[in-house]
Design brief:
Shape: elongated
Largest sheet: none
Order of helices and strands: HHHHHHHHHHH
Distance between the termini: 61 Å
Radius of gyration: 21 Å
Structural class: mainly alpha
Strand content: under 5%
Length: 180
């Protein structure tokens, strides 16, 4: 139970067992597996992860900690952080069995970043994400709006890059939008 995990943490806070307990408790909290009343009695998942001892970057505890951080960032709608954490996970852990989940979470984050940049009238915020995987995560309407706004803002290189990364069936319409 969560109380037992907390007991391990407080009993020997610097031990490997305490780090395992922190990860397990952070996972339970991040996934919402404890009732809200019970969860209020424990440290926040971010705090538990921050208190972990240093683990090797490619270790199992580091992998699990990154997954918890990823869930927490998704819960906070911290889209850029999600994209960064997926990149960190892939670089340090490889993707293996989590690749489908990583791709899905990254896709949702990139689409949300694009939508936010369009709604705020700041499509230039999407420029760091102009690469094939990110453009593939967008829906056709988002790609159209971004191309149109890049062209209107005097960013023809960005419009051209997005156009070239878009699905072939969309490219003729995107070319027309870029020229408007």
């Amino acid at each position: 139970s969560a109380a037992v995990l907390q007991g391990v943490i407080t009993g020997a806070p610097r031990s490997a067992e305490a780090d395992e307990a922190r990860l397990a408790l952070a996972t339970l909290l991040a996934e919402g597996k404890l009732p809200k009343e019970a969860a209020a009695n424990f440290p926040a998942p971010d705090k538990l992860i921050a208190d972990l001892g240093k683990a090797e970057r490619k270790s199992e505890p580091a992998r699990r900690a990154l997954l918890v951080k990823l869930r927490l960032a998704m819960g906070r709608s911290a889209w850029a952080e999600v994209v960064d954490l997926v990149a960190e996970f892939r670089a340090n852990q490889g993707a293996h069995e989590e690749e489908a989940t990583l791709k899905e979470l990254r896709g949702k984050a990139v689409a949300a970043l694009a939508q936010e940049s369009l709604e705020k009238g700041t499509p230039a915020l999407f420029l760091p994400y102009l690469e094939a995987e990110s453009v593939g995560c967008l829906n056709a309407e988002q790609r159209q709006q971004l191309v149109r706004r890049f062209a209107r803002m005097g960013l023809p290189e960005a419009a051209r890059a997005l156009l070239e990364l878009a699905p072939a069936r969309e490219q003729p319409q995107l070319r027309r939008l870029a020229l408007e």
